[in-house]
């Protein structure tokens, strides 16, 4: 039964945390929104209607107990709210920052459908856990009773880190192997600071290290050890590498280093934020300062590139996307933020050629019949092409899987025709005994919240398998 603090959505207007002025926020990589003050968070949480069937939870990949921790927040019981939020998610404050709530929980909020505006779920989630860190409520990772078995996790992104945390909590020795010199995967190097400030990620990583998880950073499977060698060192292996190979544009390209991949561009920018030396940035190839920039793509990665270029001091930033605004895959909030900061969107356009002098030939597009995804497919518009100038072109067309069987000298590792790793639907084990896989390397490029869900799920099946193995060995002995 709802308390008196709830059901305030009729008389209390929706209010997100205030955003800094566009001109000011475009000058730095700090997060653009301030955090709720305690009374505001309680007031906004109190707008929840406490639905009998909470569609917000249903549409959350983690099935977070959203109405329950909203009620606790509204009642001022913030520590309990945090504990409940943390019960289903290893990174609630990160999801609160970067989940596309407009497409998930908030987009399916019942009071949104009544015209009163959704509960600001993501902002409250961020507030709860940030408060927990400040108050010391975030407890250390306590390892379970030692089991004498070890697990290798390949990839220190959200899926790998989540699985590592649960497995360590179950008493396993956990070793995380990652090619980068810092853990976090795309959370660290792919997502800009204006959406996710890096200390927020690093404190999560440090908590895992303090809990006894061993990180092997700068470690590349296939170079420093083969997959088979890792299988010999450990009782089980989890493949959680994500997908990093940039999709290509099949157009004439004579622009040389003027055309760069989105992830190369974002990694360079994030490394500079850490104070690293990045030759390609320092020499200008991956720095947008003073340049006319064109970003190609319509997803969240494209928005990250657009907004990064603005902060680097680009002379102009344009984004080409082959569909219209209503049919783009990225968050509409991110598009709005980019427009406020000075980006220009050229809808229904696609690149046709890149010239050595910086001329980009673009093709006008129109929307035809729906494709397999249900969206109307883009097709060339007879109205013809147009040109624009670009000193830097950033390709943000999405990511595909790398050729892991070849890179890791593991031809027996089963993959799909798209290069994603094939797993058993129930156990999440690959074609190799004791080797599991989770996250984007299985489902393809997706959301961080799905990677966390996959990490949680695979940790459970790995735990079951490892217990069975230990039992079998005990019987055999």
UniProtKB/TrEMBL annotation:
Sorted UniProt keywords: 4Fe-4S, Iron, Iron-sulfur, Metal-binding, Oxidoreductase
Q: Where is the Dihydroprymidine dehydrogenase domain?
A: 25-136
Reply yes or no: does the keyword Transport apply: no
Question: Pfam families annotated for this entry?
Answer: Fer4_20, Pyr_redox_2
> Residue ranges of the FAD/NAD(P)-binding domain?
150-455
MF terms per GO, please? 4 iron, 4 sulfur cluster binding; glutamate synthase (NADH) activity; glutamate synthase (NADPH) activity; metal ion binding
- Superkingdom, taxonomy of origin: Bacteria
Q: Which Gene3D superfamilies match?
A: Alpha-helical ferredoxin, FAD/NAD(P)-binding domain
Instruction: Give the coiled coil ranges.
Output: none
For this protein, the record's InterPro entries field holds:
DPD_II, FAD/NAD-bd_sf, FAD/NAD-binding_dom, GltD-like, Helical_ferredxn
Q: What is its EC number?
A: 1.4.1.13, 1.4.1.14
Q: Looking at its record, which EC class is this enzyme?
A: oxidoreductase
Entry's PANTHER family?
Answer: GLUTAMATE SYNTHASE [NADPH] SMALL CHAIN, GLUTAMATE SYNTHASE [NADPH] SMALL CHAIN-RELATED
The name of this protein is: Glutamate synthase (NADPH/NADH) small chain
Phylogenetic classification of the source organism: Bacteria, Pseudomonadati, Pseudomonadota, Alphaproteobacteria, Sphingomonadales
